Amino acid sequence: MRILQVIQELEIGGAEGTVLSLVRRARAQGHDVAVAAASGRLASELDAPLFPLPLLRRRPWRIPRAAWSLDRSVGRWRPTIVHCHNPGMAIAASLAVRRRRRVGALVTVHGVPEEDYPA
């Protein structure tokens, strides 16, 4: 399987550490893995291709630019699945993969209080 992990940036944090762990584990199991993110302090620990993304920094008007960058990365690398981390990247990725029939997508939301997502 070809997995593209998508996260805002590779700075030090819980979600970013999770992405690094997922990359290592998937590669150990024989999967091809790449990451789309803005660079950061954790980029040097990444043992996978890195596709650069623009920083959103909670500015939703930047989402189309991130979606365009992701669309180019998905078109070049051709992942089987795109795994997004957090809502901004999920929106950008959904815009990027919406016309690609053979690309699955999922999102993991990190660090959001449970009360923000009532049942």
Structural account:
The chain has a single domain, classed as Rossmann fold, CATH 3.40.50.2000. α3 (87-97) links the parallel β4 and β5 (104-108). The protein has a five-stranded parallel β-sheet, with helices on both faces. It is built from three helices and five strands, in the order βαββαβαβ. It has helices spanning 14-28, 63-77, 87-97; strands at residues 2-9, 32-38, 50-52, 81-85, 104-108.
CATH C-level: Alpha Beta
- The CATH superfamily bears the name Glycogen Phosphorylase B
Number of helices: 3
Beta-strand content: 15-25%
Q: Would you identify the CATH architecture?
A: 3-Layer(aba) Sandwich
Helix content: 25-40%
Mean pLDDT across residues: 90
Distance separating the two termini: 33 Å
What series of H and E elements makes up the topology?
Answer: EHEEHEHE
Task: Give the strand order, joined by hyphens, for the main sheet.
Answer: 3-2-1-4-5
Whole-number radius of gyration? 14 Å
Number of strands: 5
- Helix and strand content put the structural class at alpha/beta
Number of domains: 1
Largest sheet: 5 strands, parallel
Shape: globular
User: Any idea of the CATH topology?
Assistant: Rossmann fold
Residue ranges: pLDDT <50 for 5 or more in a row?
none
